[in-house]
Amino acid sequence: MRIVSGDFGGRRLTAVPGTKTRPTTDKVKEAVFNVIGPYFDGGLVLDLFAGSGGLGIEAVSRGADHAYLIDRQFAAIKTIKSNIAVTKQETKFSVLKSDSHKILDKFSRDGLSFDLVFLDPPYAQQKIENDILKMENLNLLGADAKIICETNLETVLSDKIGQFNVSNIKEYGITKITVYQKG
């Protein structure tokens, strides 16, 4: 696993030990950024189920200003911090151990607004849809926000969630990527 492109391109990342976390493969990561980017001119990123932190780190490597990387597992937090260290730009990242719903409430109180959101929870349709609706209701999504959902092939997400419509769906092996934008 590595950072595919950008300022930190080619640097190696480690996966979270054990089987509770599925790292996004380099092939899928590169394909995702080709669909949504591939490069950014600033912006705030949220990786709500960060695992190893690879997607948020990739977004900052490709020009995002700052990424918030959230996970509730201690092993994931430890791995994320180790992976961020390879960038030598630790100030561009905030790593928080928290439940997704609790942290969204905190972000709302802090007045944050995200431009790019990655949702790769343990495969569960309702969690993704509920999280998008909660982020929208808490005004956490910027006017041009993109939400990237990673699921298994069997998961069927709604074409429209709140004000967000599917703008792209791609399948890569056993992984499906669904991109939402305001429509």
Automatic annotation (TrEMBL):
Keywords: Methyltransferase, Transferase. It holds the Pfam family Cons_hypoth95. InterPro entries: DNA_methylase_N6_adenine_CS, RNA_MeTrfase_RsmD, SAM-dependent_MTases_sf. The lineage of its organism: Bacteria, Bacillati, Bacillota, Bacilli, Lactobacillales. PANTHER family: METHYLTRANSFERASE. The keyword Transferase applies. The keyword Methyltransferase applies. PROSITE patterns: N6_MTASE. One of its GO terms (biological process) is rRNA methylation. One of its GO terms (molecular function) is methyltransferase activity. This is RNA methyltransferase, RsmD family.
